[in-house]
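Tutorial handout. Part one gives the primary structure; part two gives the three-dimensional structure as tokens.
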Amino acid sequence: MAVAGVRQPGRGPRGPRDGHLYEGYHGYWPLDSRGVDSRIGGEAALRSLVTAAHARGLRVLLDLVPNHVYEDNPRYRESQAQELWNMSDPPCVCGLGSCDWGRYIQTCWFTPYLPDVRLERPEALRWAYEDAVWWTEAFDLDGLRVDAVPMMPRAATRRIAAEVRERLAPREASFFVGEVFTGPGRGDRGDPLLPRARRARQRVRLPADVGAARRDRPRVGRLRGGRGVARRGRGEDCGQRRDADADDRQSRRHAVLVGGGGRDCV
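Part two.
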């Protein structure tokens, strides 16, 4: 069960580029990075929800928003003079003017009132992983759904996952899934900030027979802890494990997570 919108939201209404008014009821404008919205009952209500879910055999994932805060968040108000935010002059708002989603994806602001955290700075990164540990431990969570993964350095999301798994036991109980979202832009046309594999796919056009052969290969996903998963493995080890685990197939799960590593079978 995924739980979103529990953080104390930023004040509204606000009017973004499309001329409509919006409010931060959804919790993605963090006003208090560790505060539970009083409108849903505060911390006591969240703990009660998690306890009830666990009693029914449900695992609970909570949204984590480390990429940005609301402009009235004390962290931003008290540290604007420090190099903890991705600042620019003029301001770079994602997708507006020359601030392209692709080229500036890790430094642009979603809106003018959502300061973007500069996670390359140790103190800013510490906010992110300490928040992750605090929420997981304080409310007995089973994992986290990390918001806006492409907007952050990969080292930051890996550090967040590593801190939670190393500091909270058991390690295997910490489940991570990352949100991937990007807006329109021209940065996907050879921009050096984009992954090499993605640029390579745009440049290379494979012959039809090669493309068909590639489609027949085992698909690869990710399992808890970031381990690669061969969903249709053909090796001897995978075959042996599938036969041994045939009775347990219905309980198997796989998802795209934050992390990387070896291989396993499904």
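Part three, for discussion. Residues 166 and 174 are 10 Å apart (CA to CA). The longest helix spans residues 122-138.
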